Amino acid sequence: MKIFQDIFAIRGAIKDIRHQGKSIGLVPTMGALHAGHLSLLEASTKENDVTITTIFVNPIQFNNSEDLKNYPSTYEDDITLLEKCGCNIVFAPTAKEMYPTEPVIKISFGELAETMEGAFRPGHFTGVALVVMKLFNILQPTRVYFGQKDLQQFKIIEQMVYDTSLDVELKMVPTVRERSGLALSSRNKRLSKVGKVIAAHIYQALKVAAAGIQAGNDIKASINAAKSNLQSFEAIDLEYLIVVRMKDLQSVETSYDHDQLVLCFAGYVDGIRLIDNLIINE
Ligand code: AMP
Fold this sequence. Notes:
Bound molecules: adenosine monophosphate
Order of helices and strands: EHEHEHHEHHHEHEHHEEE
Strand order of the largest sheet: 1-4-3-2-5-6
């Protein structure tokens, strides 16, 4: 496994791989790797000749400097894991390498970014879009792997690829969970034991609400029941719990048509921000 930190050097390696006609699978991450990331890696190694994992905590997607400062880092362990799991290349640039000067362009996404994460983390998707665009341009992947857990991120990138005619195939990989149902997240490393037990109620509440809606229960009533369940825990500070249409992420409260629907959650458990979602009618 080769590790690169600078753009110039990895561009040379990419040129060689492309020259040999090999496909490139890309797994963008912010490190602190867990089994969720590894499921993306597994999908990529199955479908591509070469798999590249990026480890980069992208400063411009954090609207909260404390969150950035506290973001977990387990670089040495990450490298060991990646090597074991068949990754071929790691790209782990510094912030200075990626942004020698403050970037000027701002990619915006209209209504897609006005809801959920976009509403609660202003500027987040502008930062995500720019780093992903840079990674695509530097690494020229054939396929790129993202987790369903960050569904809005996937939809935003899908829109960017569509609108700018990028020649890349996007793959969405299902969310990997702990036995309790808690979605794996690098941020879980900061949860206490009790916090983890409480956080598992998020998935349970989503599951009950999603099953109810699927069975024909009123969407608003199902959401409200899940909300009051979660709000009964003092440690949980809910940001949003909504049902959206998969196609455009617009919120759906009363009608139930034939669109695919997704139940989405964000909130804090003991001050640690977690997100999760379930596709209702898969
Ligand atoms: P992150 O390092 O949190 O930015 O995540 C990197 C990629 O891993 C993103 O595409 C995430 O959606 C994906 N990911 C994070 N957690 C999970 C999970 N529990 N299951 C599957 N994919 C995940």
